[in-house]
Hints:
The structure holds two protein chains of two kinds.
Chain A: H1 5-14, H2 21-42, H3 73-77, E1 92-93, E2 96-100
Antiparallel strand pairs in A: 1-2
Chain B: E1 8-19, H1 58-70, E2 78-79, E3 81-85, E4 95-99, E5 108-114, E6 123-136, E7 140-146, E8 149-153, E9 160-166, H2 173-189, E10 202-212, E11 222-227, H3 230-249, E12 257-262, E13 267-270, E14 283-284, E15 291-292, H4 295-303, H5 309-320, H6 324-330, H7 334-345, H8 350-367, H9 379-390, H10 396-413, H11 435-442, H12 451-464, H13 466-473, H14 478-490, H15 497-509
Parallel strand pairs in B: 11-12
Antiparallel strand pairs in B: 1-9, 1-10, 2-15, 3-4, 3-14, 5-6, 6-9, 7-8, 10-11, 12-13
Amino acid sequence: MALNISDIKRIAHLARLEISEQEATQTLTKLTGILGLIEQMQAVDTTGITPMSHSQDVVQRLRDDVVTKTNMREAFQANAPKVGNGAAEKAVYGGLYLVSQVIE
Amino acid sequence: MEWAKNNWEVVIGLETHTQLKTNTKIFSGASTQYGAEPNTQACEVSIALPGVLPVLNKQAVECAIKFGLAINAAIPSRSVFSRKNYFYPDLPKGYQISQFELPVVGKGNVTIQVPAGKNTAAYEKTIHITRAHLEEDAGKSSHGVVEGMSGIDLNRAGTPLLEIVTEPDMRSAAEAVAYAKKLHELVQWIDICDGNMQEGSFRCDVNVSVRPKGTEKLGTRREIKNLNSFKFMQQAIEYETRWQIETLEDGGTIQQATVLFNPDTGETRAMRSKEEANDYRYFPDPDLLPLEVTAADTTRVQAAMPELPEAMKSRFVVEYGLSSYDAATLTTSRGMADYFVATVNAGAEAKPAANWVMGDIASYMNKNTELLSSPPISPAQLANLLKRITDGTISGKIAKEVLNEMLLKVGASTASVRETVTGEGAFYNDFGDNFADNIIEAKGLKQVSDSGAIEAIIDEVLAVNQVMVEEYKAGKEKAFNALVGQAMKASKGKANPAQVNEILKKKLTE
């Protein structure tokens, strides 16, 4: 599978990564290398082998349905970034985290 | 507007998000209780602090297995959690943990009863379930709390959901609503979801497409998002169907889109068209190992399963001699079915118990939905009342009067303090098991079965109703019923009707 520069830009956009033209070109080279490696692996015959979904062949451990977390809002929100230019206020309001307005 | 509805067929599939009844979130020990102050139940996993890891909730998995068993589905021995990648502030990780290729519940089916319509009879239909998978809910955003900002509450983030997906099996709004209602009952019946639609515990996305009748190829579908009422679902599907047919008949084409229903206008409207169409780039979540469900797990969950509505319905017919219709009505909700069984176990005869539960008790509850989540009187109290009809203490008519008195007393005394509890240990009221007996006693409603007393009443009635007596003797049968009526009235409804009939007949032929 061959990638081109517009694929790179699209993937970067989906991941909300801002990349320059130069970075895009570099990334194209790196990703193409990785895909080449995968192509090599695909040459191996894996007929009859169940694909693994995790690198370790163990299964999920389950947790009992008991509340163990307490209210840590104050501690977490102490970390919130400041709103606006040089403002002292944190980006929280009435217990809510504030972000730039998003409307569907 | 003219539109040739008859030339078109609507094809509907549903995706339903049911919030699972767990104490904690699917991947952390934070509480899922509804209505808490913003972000007080948002732990480090819910807000996606770097370095945190998800640990799967056992109860959420058991809920999923329960559902699988209830729809006769295959429960795969292994399922996998995947990341569904997209950006929105109420999803702080940048991906939702969901299941993609290997869901926890495979193919199953649900039988629905579609009620009779204007021109159609009621019928049954099997709806095929494609899959059901576990995933986490997102947080909630509120816009405009602060100028130019959106506020994010992550209490809901990480709440366990079971997304239940059907095949495109439904062919009308009525079928879709019948399915949604059936599913809503079922998840509550097996106790995996509280079914509270106002609080968003049960929300449906409906995929609608149309195609010319007789063709196989599916039309392009539009998805109506987040319907949380059956009424809106009906309206939204009807509007959307008409819109699609009109668009196609006018020579237009349907673009795949996500639409929202506006209850105020009754219309559906497309949300932003997705130029970067759903590219979620699913991949297995490396933070979670495959989920293994063993035969022993399934057996253990099966053992704890309640009897399912279909099985209970058949049992009611066989065990209690109820009609199939009555049995179906009683098993529309587990609360009603349990209440009926408890009434019978408390000594009432099955058939009258069924009638009173489906009739007077159900209609009182329907009228007082804001006050009641459980019936107003206990099964023992209802059984006490019904036993008094059977043993001849009161007539069926007086029994209604006694019940009304009971409901009045309950309404006046405890309505405001009743709690949302059902089942064993439920609180009904403070009036004791002999509630009905006490009212019969206090109001002197005991049926008069003393033949001397009845004879005296009848003699009086005959004396003042000579005209009717003559009419009867002249062959007018109706006059007899009128005389019975007069005698019952004279006894204030307390005379034993069978005895009145018998004595009156005897007197008139003397």
